[in-house]
Specification:
This protein is α/β, with parallel strands linked by helices. The protein is 45% helix and 16% strand. The chain has ten helices and ten strands. The strands form two sheets. Strands 1-2-3-4-5-6-7-10 form an eight-stranded parallel beta barrel, surrounded by six helices. The protein has a two-stranded antiparallel ribbon with strand order 8-9. A hairpin with a 2-residue loop joins strand 8 and strand 9.
Length: 273
């Protein structure tokens, strides 16, 4: 049975101990820790604080990780930006290993210009993957590349493109972002599951509707169908709620965020076999 989790970024403004405690209070069984969670990132990545939070909440272990992506692009035309982006991703794998995390989600990067990716961009992507492969083999952590929104400069935004990369890199896993796929076409989610279910290591679960990304799933029939399709395909990893808290009508208190996650959990538990 899949394990219900949430992104630490849903609790964007809170310290680590409150984030972990709140996720556990909501009754979830896991957390995807974004390295850029502000209380961690802006304080210089204090490992002791993260390690203490993980140890204090064994019910959420093993956590998953999300490598840094903000202001970063491993395929950037700017070589310093590209190098820094790759380094941060490799360091995220090492950090994940140090706290016992089993999966790290990474973004594939994109062409800097708003143009279709060129051979230059794909060469940068292959360099990036080679570094991540070395990190994965050294640590034993699974690295999972995420499907992106369908934009002109995206490297990985179709089921066929993801499958091609997975076939070329047998060591690599896949993080299915349902909202990104829905933004292209609701049918794409099913195609991702059909083509890539054997390599899915994490699922970012949220809804795209009315031009808005990462909406809650409670009450959404399509979300329940996706969860059942994943179960039918044999997926039993994390279902990670990736909800954008700015999509709500007012800023949520921490108690309201816990309530939202409880509602999401109760809805999804009814969907799971």
């Amino acid at each position: 049975m899949a394990r219900l989790a949430t992104s630490s970024m849903f609790f964007h403004e809170y310290p680590l101990d409150e984030i972990f405690a709140s996720v556990e209070e909501a009754g979830l069984g896991g957390i995807e820790f974004w390295v850029e969670t502000p209380h961690f990132w802006l304080r210089g990545l204090p490992f002791a604080d993260l390690d203490a939070a993980v140890r204090a909440h064994p019910a959420l272990a093993p956590i998953t990780f999300h490598a840094p992506v903000l202001d970063l692009n491993p395929c950037s035309i700017n070589p310093r930006v590209a190098a820094a982006s790759r380094q941060y991703a490799v360091e995220a794998v090492d950090l994940a290993a140090a706290v016992g995390a089993e999966v790290v989600t990474v973004h594939p990067g994109r062409r800097t210009a708003k143009r279709r990716p060129s051979a230059y961009d794909y060469e940068h992507f292959r360099t990036y993957l080679a570094l991540l492969r070395d990190a994965a083999e050294r640590t034993g952590v699974r690295v999972a590349v995420e499907n992106m929104e369908l934009t002109v400069n995206s490297l990985l935004s179709t089921p066929a493109a993801v499958r091609e990369v997975l076939d070329a890199n047998p060591w690599l896993s896949f993080t299915l972002d349902v909202s990104h796929a829905m933004a292209a076409s609701p049918g794409d989610v099913g195609q991702y599951i059909d083509l890539c279910a054997d390599r899915i290591a994490n699922v970012h679960l949220s809804i795209f509707d009315g031009g808005k990304m990462h909406l809650p799933v409670t009450g959404n029939r399509y979300a329940s169908e996706v969860v059942r399709a994943l179960a039918a395909a044999g997926y039993d990893g994390s279902l990670t709620l990736e909800i954008e808290d700015r999509n709500f009508l007012h800023p949520l208190s921490i108690e309201e965020k816990i309530t939202v996650l409880r509602q999401e959990r109760e809805f999804l538990e009814d969907c799971l076999p």
